[in-house]
Amino acid sequence: MEPRSRSFYVLAGVFGLFVLFLYGPILTIGVLSFQGPGGGLTFPMNGVSLHWFFDLFEQQAVGDIWGSFRRSFALGLMVMVVTVVVSVMGGLAFRRRFRGSTALFYLIVASLIIPSILISLGVGLIFNILDFDVHWSTSGFGAQLTWTLPFGLLIMFAVFNRFDKSYEEAARDLGASSWQTIRHVVLPIIAPSLIGVALFGFTLSYDEFARTLLTAGSHNTLPLEIVGMTTNVTSPVLYALGTLTTVFSFLMIGSFLLLVIFLKRRRAGAGSDAGKGMV
Amino acid sequence: MTTGTGKTRINRRSLLKGAAATAGLAVGAGAVTGFPTVWAQNIKNVTLRQFGTGVSNLNEVAAKVKEDLGFTLEMTALDSDSVTQRAATQPKSFDIADIEYWICKKVWGAGNLQAMDTSKIKNYDKIVGTFRSGKLTPDSVIAQGTAPHTVGFVEGPEGKTFVDNESGWMTLIPTIYNADTLGIRPDLIGRLIESWTELLNPEFKGKASILDISSIGIMDAAMVCEAMGEVQYGDKGNMTKEEIDKTMAIFTEAKKNGQFRAFWKSFDESVNLMSSGEVVIQSMWSPAITAVRSKGIPCVYQPLKEGYRSWGGGLGLSANLSGIELDAAYEYINWYLSGWVGGFLMRQGYYSAVPETSKNFMTEDEWGYWFEGKTAQKDIVNPQGKVMEKAGAVRDGGSFYDRMGAVACWNAVMDENKYMVRKWNEFIAA
Amino acid sequence: MAPGAASKETAVSKAPSPEKASWFLVSPLVLVLGVFLVLPILTIVTVSFWDYNEYNFFPAFILENYSYLLTSQVTLATYLKTFKFMALTWVFCAVIGFTVAYFLAFHVRSLPMQVVLFLICTVPFWTSNIIRMISWIPFLGRNGIANSTLISAGVIDEPLEWLLFSDFAVVLAFVHLYCLFMVVPIFNTMMRIDRSLIEAARDAGASGFQILTNVIIPLTKPGIMIGSIFVVTLVMGDFITVRFMSGGQSASVGRVISNEIALLQYPAAAASAVVLLITVLIMIGIMMRFVDIRKEL
Asked: By the CB < 8 Å criterion, does B260 face chain C?
């Protein structure tokens, strides 16, 4: 490896600041989640305690944190899976022009740029008119997909536009069927990008407020529940939730890292060149 | 509806006649026992979905319902805008709506709620006059705005228009209400505040706040403008376009001069603004004051000479309710008025619609402090056992009759509401 | 498709009935977008001509919703304000996003490391935005961390009022929320730049700065454009960030719509929405003129 240039350290510093900026609120949340039992959501600190972490697992005066968390998490996973699958399918289809492809492309762009609140309003109205029940897993799910799908698709378009077709051709020359080619050649190569799509899908869904506002029905997702909770006195319990989420996420990343290292070792043994087919 | 009892509805009516009477008695006694077994079994499978703001959609109430009545009450807390939306546009997402009277005025016409038969309401006669005749005491003057009794009754079970007498069909069963005024930080202000005009006093430039819910905010604004002598209103609760323009012009100018630090929309924001010291004077709700004070930060719910702006909330039944769920809902409402909830909410600073039943669920000291405006003999704790006020404290504004008797106006929906809302939005955008 | 038939083909594009295969592949997409995008938009456009009262809206054909909207001074002021937020957010996001993406793409050498760094950037987003928004108050407030740090460091004597509940706070929160939307597409395009081009430029004697401006930036343009589309769209439609961070004192187009929805003035909201939609479409249309996204993705 060549030695790091000076610009590396400058840019690494900038990146560090950027991360610090992203974590600014998280740090405040981290500190304030250790508020004493009498403390509130703002400074000054009123003693230091673990009170709110324990309180998080008690029933709150208002709202149902864990119920809504479960719903948001489930919804996030649903959105994630569907986004990945539909995006890959769309990406494959869009590798060549077909009748209506341009129109569909602009529809995808439109889906991206339509303000969230409109989707919420429109979907809510339609469900009402058709006399369906709005529910987070139906109307809420669909409304969120109009948001995550364009993201996934744009990433997939980008990926496939830079996809080296010679790998596929080689597979075909060796007698692989279309499906086999996709399954054993295309998917492994695009796998790293799929992680990105999945991550985007989950994150966008988990934190979505506007699109679920009018489409969640009688059971709230977590962001809606938190807003609902602010109609009464909320406590640093919300911060405790934030801190736990962050800690939990780091644990997840840690295990992901271990998994990658493990896979890498196994791959090194198998001599695979998966993930290297991009030009 | 998730009841699982859809097939057991045969003969329910005849069965229920006896059951309801028994239930009424039992509820009145504060304990629910003695239901016929079948009924008690059926009702246990009922789930009622209630939504409202976090003010009264408390999990402890749901837990107590399960304990006392046996059925499940699902609570969804939303902000006031979402509450209005849901009541008006998502009739299938709820069974019981916990809404404010001004919201009722807006959404009743949508037909998503059904009127309630007051003859089935055990404690109907004990509901305070404000919600029935409009008069707190026989010689009270009815305040301006959307007073609860003006939208409290309709002509019949299918009634669409409000009537001005106790028709026997109620739109909402009143639950809690209060008299609102300005909250202040006495430690940061350091002098006597006694008029609504202080909200726009340049002394508090950059340290004032008002709430951004148009139907409520406009009334606070009107109280200020009237107190300043800048605008004379025919009826603050039903302003003319010209009055709205004048009011909003005064507030827009104040906003442009940097009078306001922020506008708040949810309860919690008002607490945070006050306790962080961002704001020293603002429109506020009583329990928010208590929340600030319980953090050891001085905060006063300042009675003002012009009087209070009042609000009231109640429970409405979804038009979709029928059969055993409807009976369960009546059951729940009777239970609601039977005292436990009233006591629970009064200990947080609200007033119960049936104070006399609530009294049974409060200590004498608590009743004295919260209702009668007496000096607290011992520490006043909230329902969770946290100390809210030290012994020797007196409630700001005094007794129930002092406070509710000095109401100058109610949160309102006006004839010119559409116009008012536009002007309000322009004010926020200015 | 029979395996035998496929093996004779040299590429997917020549597979039998490619049209049908494509349509099959996009059918779920079409379904979702049809039901949850096209239908809602049609509904909204229709409703924008309807009339309404306190609690209900009903079929009619009135232009009042539009005539009020297009003649009100507030509309113009609101749009100007929103454009201002958008422009500022875009500038900061583009500069920060480009720098960060450049670091990740050209200086971080292994893919797992890049993924990990991305994950680290994503973690804050798993704490609900609403909670993070609330936490800006103790950070930026009059007695918050920022002010007390600055005061104790002797930089300022009086707390800075404009840190919170101001345009500054709004833009800060926007950049905080949306910067990653700029980083990801730029990073993506940068990863596709053929490293030999940079080598060639270096061999031809180009300075680091020249490489940046003459090679990397032009080749990254599609990524920047996609990121810009994200940022522009997100800012134009936002309502909750503006409300929280301006302390409810600033208006944005999204807030106007959400207010109207909150007040059950659906037809008015729909009309505002249609105007916003057209505005955004025009803006994106202009941006797409500079870069053919489809070609350069």
From this structure: yes
